[in-house]
Structures are given as C-alpha cells and as structure tokens.
Amino acid sequence: xxxxxxxxxxxxxxxxxxxxxxxxxxxxxxxxxxxxxxxxxxxxxxxxxxxxxxxxxxxxxxxxxxxxxxxxxxxxxxxxxxxxxxxxxxxxxxxxxxxxxxxxxxxxxxxxxxxxxxxxxxxxxxxxxxxxxxxxxxxxxxxxxxxxxxxxxxxxxxxxxxxxxxxxxxxxxxxxxxxxxxxxxxxxxxxxxxxxxxxxxxxxxxxxxxxxxxxxxxxxxxxxxxxxxxxxxxxxxxxxxxxxxxxxxxxxxxxxxxxxxxxxxxxxxxxxxxxxxxxxxxxxxxxxxxxxxxxxxxxxxxxxxxxxxxxxxxxxxxxxxxxxxxxxxxxxxxxxxxxxxxxxxxxxxxxxxxxxxxxxxxxxxxxxxxxxxxxxxxxxxxxxxxxxxxxxxxxxxxxxxxxxxxxxxxxxxxxxxxxxxxxxxxxxxxxxxxxxxxxxxxxxxxxxxxxxxxxxxxxxxxxxxxxxxxxxxxxxxxxxxxxxxxxxxxxxxxxxxxxxxxxxxxxxxxxxxxxxxxxxxxxxxxxxxxxxxxxxxxxxxxxxxxxxxxxxxxxxxxxxxxxxxxxxxxxxxxxxxxxxxxxxxxxxxxxxxxxxxxxxxxxxxxxxxxxxxxxxxxxxxxxxxxxxxxxxxxxxxxxxxxxxxxxxxxxxxxxxxxxxxxxxxxxxxxxxxxxxxxxxxxxxxxxxxxxxxxxxxxxxxxxxxxxxxxxxxxxxxxxxxxxxxxxxxxxxxxxxxxxxxxxxxxxxxxxxxxxxxxxxxxxxxxxxxxxxxxxxxxxxxxxxxxxxxxxxxxxxxxxxxxxxxxxxxxxxxxxxxxxxx
Length: 821
Hints:
The chain has 31 helices and 6 strands. It is mainly alpha-helical. Strands 1-5-4-3-2-6 form a 6-stranded mixed beta sheet, sandwiched between helices. Helix 5 (115-129) crosses helix 7, helix 24 runs antiparallel to helix 27 (649-657) and helix 25 runs antiparallel to helix 26. The protein is flat, with a radius of gyration of 35 Å.
C-alpha cells in the first residue's frame, strides 16, 4: 500500500490495475535518470569490443555505429520508453498478453531471423549477469501483480526490453540484419552494471512508496520446516550444470590457499553468498533476514560478543550432546581399527595397516545423515535464529558429505565435526561469514591437504593418523568447541609445516635433470650477453643475430658441459661465431672467393653438429640454413666492394680464445626465472635418462575473449606452491597432477601424478600461457566450507529457476501464447 494512502476495502481489479499502472509509470523517470546518462559509456565499451572481432563485417559495423553514437543514444531513450510502456500495460492486464516479438523459424541463423528475435539470444547472458538485483526487484513488484507468483517474463523491467531497445536504435544504421545480433553480443557485459544500478534505484523508489513484499512468516515448527527439508532433498539431488555439448564447464581459476598451509587471513568473502541465501529463502516464504543481520553484527564485533547468545532449549542441547557423543564414538572406533591394528614385527614406523573405504565405513558404523538430524534439531530449536542456523549448517555439511575432491576416509572424519561447528555457529554466527575463523580454517586445511590422498604410502598413512587426531581432539575436548578448533588447528598446521615427503629415486632423478636444464639455460644467458657484446658493429640480419643469441648460446653451454670428454669441442663451437658472421659480410676487394666457398662448406657442417647437441628440430634448422645459403649466394656472386662497418673477424676470434664459462650460482631465487629453449629440454632429459615429459605450446590457438592478461596470469603462477594439486589439459585429456617441485629459480615446474609414475615439466613461460588459455587451474578453487556454502546457494538458485520456469510454463499455457522474452 502506498504510504499515506487510506486502505480501501476489497478493491476491484480495475482499481488495483490503475494503482499499479500509476506507480509503475512513476518508475520511468528513475530508469531514465539512472540508465540513460551511462548509455554513452556502455555503447563505447560495446563497440570497442566489437571492433576487436575477427569478422571484418562486425568491425565495419562497429566503426559505423561509433560515428553515429550521439544519434543512437538519443533514439535509445524513446525506444526504451516505448518498450517500458507496452510492458507496463501487459503487466496490469490492459493489453492482450501476446508476444511482443514475432517468432522466427530459426534462432541460430541470425542473417535469416527477425531482428527482434536476435536479441533473445543475448538476453540469457544479460539475465545471468544481473540475476541478484533482478530477483530482488521481482520480489518488490510482486504486490503489484494481479495474482499468483510474478514470472520474470511478465516483469515490466526484465532485461530483454533494454536489449530490444538497443536493437531498435542501432538497426537503422546497419544494412544487414545479421549484424544487429553480432553487435549486440558485445552489449551484455558493459550494460550489466548500469542495469544493476537501475534495478536497485527502482527498488528504492518502490520502498519509498511503501511497495514492499508482504511480511513473510518466520521459520517455525510444522509444515514450514517440513517443506524446507523436502526442497533441500530435491535441490541436492539435482545434477551439476553442464555445457551444451555435455562437457563439464571450462576450467576457471580462483586464487586459493596452497594445500598444506593454513588459509590466509581474509576479509569476510561469504557475505554476498549469505545475502543470496537469505534472498532465496525469502522467495520460499522464509524470512531469514535475522540470520544475515546477526552474522554481520557478530563479524563486526569480532571475537568478543557484546551480549551472550540466547541459551539453547534443554531438549535441543541434550540432543546435540547425544548426537556429538555418537560421532565421537565413531571417531574412536575409527582410531581403534586404524591405529590400534596389530603390526607386523618388522613394520617400520608409519606402516600400520589402513582399512579401505569399506573398512572405514564398517568401523564408523552407519552414520546418520546430516539432513535427518536437521529435522529433529529444527523442531527442538527455541528461536527463529537457531532454526535458521541449524538449517544452513546442515545444508553445508550435506554438501560436504558429497564433496568429490576430499577422499572418502578424510571426508567421513570431517563430517564428524558437524555438531561441533553447529555449536560454534549457534554461539558465534560470524563463522558463517569469516573464512578465517579457526573452525573453518581447520576443516579447510584438512580438506585441502587431503586432495590426492591414497593409502599407498607411509607418508599418506601418517597424514591420515594426524587428520584423525585433529578431529578426535575437537569432538572429545571438554572445553568449548571454539577453543578446541583453535588448538587443533594450530597442532595440525604445525604437522603440515613439518611434512617432509619420503625420497623417491625417480623423483630425485627428475629433479636433477631439470636442475641441469636450468643451469644450462643460466649459462646460455651468460654466453648470449658475451656474443651480443662482441658483435657490436657487425652487419647482420635479425634472424641470424637471433640464431646466435638464442640457439648458439645454448650450443656453447652444451659444449662446455662436455669439456671433460671433448676438450677441443668448446673452442671449435666458439670459432663458428666469427666464421658465420664473416661469411655473410661483403667481401673485400680482391678476396679469394674459392676459399670463401670452401669455408662456407665447412661452416655448415659445424652448424649441423652444433645444433645436434641441443636437439634443435630439423625443420627449424633447415629453414635457417635455407636463408643462410641465400645470403651466401648473394655474397659470392656480388661485385667486389669494401666491407661495411668496422667489425673485424680476427678481433672476435681473439676475444673468444679467452672466453671461458663459469658455473652459475645455484639456488639463487632473487633473479627470477630464466628463459627456456623449449625444444631443447626433451633432448637433455632424454640424454640423462629422465622419465619426465616436457610440455609447451607448439602452435598456440587464439586466446579466449575472457583470458586474463599476461601480468595477471604471471602473478597467479608466481603464487603457486609445491604440493598443490592442479587440473591440467594435456592434448584432449584433463589430468590431475601435483606440483612436486620448482627448480631453484622457478624456471621449470615438475608435476607428478598421485602414484608418481607419470611426471611432466613446464617452463614458467608455458605455465603463464596455460593459465591464460584456462588449461591449468588449482584443483581446489575454493576452500572446503566456502565451496560447500556456494554449492548450497547454487542448489537453491537452480531450484528457484526450475520453479520459476514451471510457473512461467503454466502461465503461458493458461494465456495460450508464450512470451518471446
């Protein structure tokens, strides 16, 4: 009801429609004042993105529209006003509920489809970008709707009308209908922030007019709690979303704390997700605002609450203690079977038998599911806040129970912490917002360090015992749960910091080989600087100079490494530099060209022998030799002329006679990675008999549009630590491997499979490229509890969308005509 307006008993449909139309009509100035001033910037960003397209027609269209920017901005306001007015009339029922847009036979072929239908393909993307503010606005428009739940397709401010207006504005400036849709593809991203601000501004205006959602009943006993648990059951059985071709979503990297170390101190990153959770609860008829408000207040206060939490009802407290005792007994049984099992007389420390997953489950017995407990706990809770907290914690642990990244024995242990974490959350709701809370840090550290765990090695068995000990300490501690989590976290962090993996012969050999690769590359950098100095004044083409600085510098480093076996080799390889450069210089008048031809023949043989030392590919060598022979033929057939420049081959030979390579300082991390000649690494690894397979991008494809820039990707790679697990694309396969080791200057990274039987290496530069293409990302993109929290919100979002789609289909069936948007 509008503020200050006297209530009218039983208003008729006509009065309700007139009131809704009047209020929505006043929303237009808010939309115009918020959106239109930003339209010029939105258009500029969209056209700049279109101008980078590979399609020349789209680039020309972007140039045409840039010249007409002022006209487009002016016409957009009128087009949007028309779209908004028609949508309001349909909203209040004053206009037949027929599609605003003529349907087409094919939405895939834009050149043959109607201009209006092209926009529908971009609308879905824009809708996802503004999903949260749009849902909030839909809830506020609900009291003005003529009955039932308001579907998104009936909203007068749905994202589609803003794109249709843009299509109407740019179409007159383009000759080909298909170009409208091609340009609009670039509008969604820059338009989203302006549209979000518009939705927020309209929502505030509706609040000022007293148009707010009807008061929602708080969570209580009886049907409401039952319906929530039913929804939870349905949401948790829904499969994760897939791409259109059935594949999993592409890899996306989110920075995360390295496994084996406590998470970094961070700001409350889960607050937006708790706000989303509360909003989704409101759509289900549950007013959960108190959960967000109390959690925010607790997080602001920090560890010292200003007032004691409301005491738990005696029945709830007794049930919690009883349930936690049962889980504690299961952890004790787990310990009895795993640690107390008899050893062989000659078993080494850490070699106690470890049960299989089936043995773990047998030791723990049949654990009651978290959702089953939540029904009983919610019924015993005394306040709405307690009910909401129990419900959310139960959903988080229901997600943890199904987390695929954590191995089954470790996950079973973590689930035994559910009632201890619930005790903390009931006393300190800030745990729902703070990833750096001690309780969450312990669970996150155990889960992160357990990725890739298997009972195959003594180190992994020792890790399992310490994980059990950390959980055992919490569930058996006589003090408060918060204090127990903190003490256990400190003990487990100390254990992780002291982990020293058992030596592996194959891994040690792989490290030695890669260390030698980095040492050779460091020497090559020294040689390259020396060659660059002595060639000052020489007339050289760029490809020849690059060959000497990049390839031949590695050849000299390889020759120096074989000085003990072939003492004369390094000198012969050094002599190639002045001979090669002299062979392409203009000959002096009266020079003996026959002798020059003989010298060139010997030079080509030494070049072939030299590049064989570093395994440079034959196709690249042949391409270089072809260009070199062209240069030689020009020198031989050319007229006599004085040599250009002051460069002297004899002087360079003298300087190379005294040149010696010194050993680089090993272990120097301060100078950063050295450039790696990717093609030469497999040759050296093969020479040393290493099983490591070196990978790099031989023919890199085009970067995706959302690829991070090189500095951002390099920053990510620099933050990756050893013992972190990664999902990596190798060819057509997606593999999971652990970062086992960096070379001393982080020039090369060694990755190993869980069993250690497969090892690959990538240079720092290749890792940056892989990161930009999205071909490598840490397996654990988010810590366990945050991952489960986001999974809960995602479940509810999918359930909400499914319910909205069902309502929309029902409304479409009743109206007899589906909405085009």
